[in-house]
UniProtKB/TrEMBL annotation:
This is Membrane protein. The keyword Transmembrane applies. One of its GO terms (cellular component) is membrane. The lineage of its organism: Bacteria, Bacillati, Actinomycetota, Actinomycetes, Micrococcales. The chain crosses the membrane at residues 6-26, 71-89, 101-119. It comes from Demequina activiva.
Length: 120
């Protein structure tokens, strides 16, 4: 189970670091052109969402890797699941596609389940 956790957590962490990093570091015009940043949302809010995603991704990897409070890893994964559920609700309420939220959300959910099995 530990190997499965590391595989899924690594893929999930990469996905969230990539998505969050793009939101943090990407220029506003590029994010709006790609459809990542809708007109109704401010750049500050998008950067905050990106920061939450990056911190959550770090929470999947660093606690078990360092051996310091590995129980925080499944908690971080649960937090990312909540972020993705809120993203689905938000996108659905505005008639936007939810395709970009399903895979990271599923990865976070599997990571949370495996993390609770392995680390608790």
């Amino acid at each position: 189970m530990t190997i499965a956790y590391w595989i899924v957590a690594s893929v999930a962490a990469l996905a969230f670091v990539f998505a969050g990093g793009m939101k943090i570091a990407g220029p506003e015009s590029a994010l709006r052109d790609k459809g990542v940043l809708p007109e109704r949302r401010t750049m500050a809010r998008e950067r905050a969402i990106g920061a939450v995603e990056v911190v959550g991704a770090l929470g999947l990897i660093l606690p078990p890797l360092t051996g310091i409070a590995p129980v925080l890893a499944p908690i971080a994964a649960t937090g990312l699941v909540i972020v993705m559920v809120l993203a689905v609700v938000n996108h659905r309420s505005h008639g936007e596609p939810i395709n970009g939220t399903l895979v990271p959300g599923a990865l976070a959910l599997v990571t949370a389940v495996l993390g609770f099995i392995v680390w608790i």
